[in-house]
UniProtKB/TrEMBL annotation:
Family: Belongs to the PlsY family.
GO terms of molecular function: acyl-phosphate glycerol-3-phosphate acyltransferase activity
Protein name (record): Glycerol-3-phosphate acyltransferase
Gene field: plsY
Catalysis: reaction(s): an acyl phosphate + sn-glycerol 3-phosphate = a 1-acyl-sn-glycero-3-phosphate + phosphate
Pfam families in the record: G3P_acyltransf
GO biological process, one term: phospholipid biosynthetic process
PANTHER family assigned to the protein according to its UniProt record, in alphabetical order: GLYCEROL-3-PHOSPHATE ACYLTRANSFERASE-RELATED, INNER MEMBRANE PROTEIN YGIH
Pathway recorded for this protein: Lipid metabolism; phospholipid metabolism
Length: 284
């Protein structure tokens, strides 16, 4: 009995080690209790620090649920004490003694604890989460449905009433932690999960299609589209411009040559016969 109580206390203390707050401090990120949704969990860390940081936090949260339950099973404390160990780990994550009792919603830690408590129950909880998230696209709704169905899964697979109350309280506390999400789901303001498959689907989701008949399109828009569709002339290069400029120059030179040849030949000047004048003087 004393050993069972000790393991339950250890499970609570392990659950109180909030990985979201510690990882954000080590990486120099803002406190998840003060940023985003102000919930120190993996989902809020995803908004603050990205996918890799959120994956680290998620892994630690699941591990917090697995380790104490595995320890309880190793010590052979019985199904009832093991189930209470799982509950203590989840409560430690929700109300951590090291962080002013301000913790997360306990979904990842609960899944880890259920996987260690009964592997098939844990797998059924994960399958329920994936199924609800795929159909309704709400992470909070998927978490609520998956954890709330866990006590019924335990009754079907284990069939022991002694282990039912701790698992039922896990579901009850998870449901209470999601009270704000439930009000947003009722109001229709809860954000959905975005499953991005292809680039075409992303474009179709971001830009809704509009059915416009060709008669409704104005003539000005039709003319603009027709002008855009016409092939544009290639820009003239330097070689082509130099050729075009050289042609008129050659024509000018040929015209000048023709004009020179066409000019009439000048008449030679008449010269007086000098010899004749000399002979006439001698005769005189």
């Amino acid at each position: 009995m004393a050993l069972s109580i000790l393991i339950v206390v250890i499970a609570y203390l392990m659950g109180s080690i909030n990985s979201a707050i510690i990882v954000c401090r080590l990486l120099g990120l803002p406190d998840p209790r003060e940023e985003g949704s102000k919930n120190p969990g993996a989902t809020n860390v995803l908004r603050i620090g990205g996918k890799q940081t959120a994956a680290i936090v998620m892994g630690f949260d699941v591990l917090k649920g697995i380790l104490p339950v595995v320890l309880a099973k190793y010590l052979d404390l019985g199904s009832t004490a093991t189930a209470f160990t799982a509950l203590a780990a989840v409560l430690g994550h929700m109300y951590p003694v090291f962080f002013q009792f301000r913790g997360g919603k306990g979904v990842a830690t609960a899944i880890g604890a259920l996987l260690a408590f009964h592997f098939i129950i844990g797998v059924m909880v994960i399958a329920t989460w994936l199924l609800v998230a795929n159909f309704f696209r709400y992470s909070s709704l998927a978490s609520i449905c998956a954890i709330v169905l866990a006590p019924f899964y335990s009754m079907i697979l284990i069939g022991e009433l002694n282990s039912f109350p701790p698992i039922f309280f896990i579901a009850l506390f998870v449901l209470y932690k999601h009270k704000d999400n439930i009000t947003r789901l009722i109001d229709g303001t809860e954000p959905k999960i975005k499953f991005k498959h292809t680039v075409i689907e992303e474009i179709m989701e971001s830009e809704p299609a509009e059915d416009i008949s060709p008669h409704e399109v104005p003539e000005s828009e039709m003319a603009q589209s027709a002008e855009k569709a016409k092939p544009k002339k290639a820009p003239a290069t330097k070689a082509t411009t130099e050729k075009k400029e050289s042609k008129p120059k050659a024509a000018k030179t040929t015209k000048a040559k023709v004009e020179k040849t066409a000019e009439p030949a000048k008449k030679p000047k008449a010269t007086k016969p000098k010899a004749a004048t000399k002979t006439t003087k001698k005769k005189e």
